[in-house]
């Protein structure tokens, strides 16, 4: 019996407009609750952005947000995983060495911080994933605990940037280019797979009782922590190879329809 469903959001649960079928979600989620199944959104989006996205419909869901560095439920922070301050600062320096014009998003549990000179169109992109965004003259003004460093590059150089940073900090951080325009840096061993394992332990849920969905390079770990792992039809090849099954695309409600079909098959 499935007790936990974990899904990525962008490109997986959400459609290409960044929204979802609320009526279908409400029906599926209500049935999940009756069956005692937990629902978790595992995403690079800021937890508070996810809370706004689901609104009143998200009561009781688990949010593994900020690239799985924070776990929240019903507005309460359950766990956070921080990156060493000096490593975070060094990561920012190496990104700036690669290209000083890169859009860096330095995140703490309080907010996401960007350079004060950021262009309006790039700031709009950041706001698509982060609810609390603060502009700073220098990242050195941040005195809280870093949870992650994210880079958005409209030129699609995240793979080259990853290699550059790895050359300097390999073995000290976890770094992944989830797609050509996005790159995340977190504490070593802090990623979607490890954070879901912590949630599984908290809930007393096993690998065999977990279902997962994903589409990007950073969702490969999600395919490894669930017996019933699904790559959506629009997923990258590595995620499809790692998945046990392929389902409909994010534009076809692949996640919700698959959960619904599973529950229909297990009705007594």
TrEMBL record:
This is HAD hydrolase, IIB family protein. GO terms for molecular function: magnesium ion binding; phosphatase activity. It comes from the Bacteria. Transmembrane segments: none annotated. Pfam families: Hydrolase_3. GO terms for cellular component: cytosol. Keywords: Hydrolase.
